[in-house]
Amino acid sequence: MSAVREAGPQVYAIAWAEDERTDSDQFYRFKTYSEPDSVRPLVFFAWLISHAGRLTLFDTGASRAVAGQRGINYMGSVADGVRELGIDPAVVDTVVISHLHYDHSGGIPDFPGARISIHPKEVEFWTGPNLARAQFNSIVELDDIVFLIRAIRDGRVDFVTEGSAITPDITVRHLPGHSVGQIGLQVGGVDGLLLAADAAHYYDEVFSNRPFTVFSDLPVMYDSYDRIRTLIGGARDRLVPGHDSQVFDVFGTGDALWRPGRTPRVFRVR
Q1: Per the count of CB atoms within 10 A, which of 158, 206, 249, 255 is most buried?
Q2: Alpha-carbon span 130 to 185, nearest angstrom
Q3: Which letter does DSSP use for residue 212 in this model?
Q4: What's CA 91's distance to the chain center, in Å?
């Protein structure tokens, strides 16, 4: 039995890959800010939540093969990160998928005992005509979508929407724009932590209102930034973005502080 099964929700970040990107790569129409371009880290996270005697995994990363094909530095699977916490991936109760982009849904097969939660609009989008459009399908892996469809047919998938309770301590927040069915998780009640996943890749998206370069609907994504600010009461330390190395500065201590070339693998954020 895992050492992290304690009273009250606890959240562990699992960094499974890293890369570097320029601001002009990451922010939509960056030139409109009239600022010099710069390089920033891009960290790929998943999160394990221990709560009410249950284990919930939020996102699952990608496989080593897919990471290699896409040119990102793979540090290890999310499942191996779960093992570093002393947990057998087979005992994870629920896997929540924020959206179906390749870096969030590729590790679902590593958690065979878990039920899968996802927003129905995400499934509808990726099983419709947009899957054939290159501007969309370049950010998903067909194998991941096929696996999910089979899981739906096997009765293993639960559809969740705004306000759905994963547990009494974990609430779904529908934050579309980056993807149609993009969700975040609010942990620990209305004054708790918001795991934004790719509803906010970086703090700058929320606090500087700078939209990410990949989106399904730009105005809707702006609306989600507004909503995130409301959900966190404007407090930076209540927001966990999906790819920002500043997460280490906001929540990490000691060995859990990010430095170039040395990304901590697993650390507690709540």
Answers
A1: 206
A2: 26
A3: B
A4: 21
pLDDT at 95 > cutoff 50:
yes
Q: Which residues contact 10 (CB under 8 A, 6 or more apart)?
A: 4, 49, 50, 51, 268, 270
Residue 138's SS3 state is: coil
193-197 vs 239-241, strand pairing mode: parallel
pTM listed for this prediction: 0.94
Q: What is the pLDDT, as a whole number, of residue 235?
A: 97
What residue type is 183 in one-letter code? I
Write down the pLDDT at residue 123. Answer: 98
Q: Check pLDDT > 60 for residue 146.
A: yes
pLDDT of residue 36: 97
3-state helix, strand, coil in the chain (%, to 5): 35, 25, 40
User: What CATH number is given for 10-169+247-268 in this structure?
Assistant: 3.60.15.10
- The secondary element (H helix, E strand) that includes residue 165 is strand 165-167
In this structure, what is the dihedral angle of CA atoms 131, 132, 133, 134, given to the nearest 10 degrees? 100
Tens-digit pLDDT profile for residues 22-34: 999 999 999 999 9
Share above pLDDT 90 across residues of the chain, in percent, rounded to a whole number: 87
3-state class of 267 per DSSP?
strand
Tokens 């993807």 correspond to what residue? 179
Confidence at 126, pLDDT banded by 50, 70, 90 = very high
d(CA 58, CA 170): 11
DSSP string, 104-129: HHTTGGG-TT-EEEE-HHHHHHHTSG
Report how far residue 121's alpha carbon sits from residue 5's, in angstroms, rounded to the nearest whole number.
Answer: 32
Q: Under a CB-based contact definition with an 8 Å cutoff, are residues 22 and 267 in contact? A: no
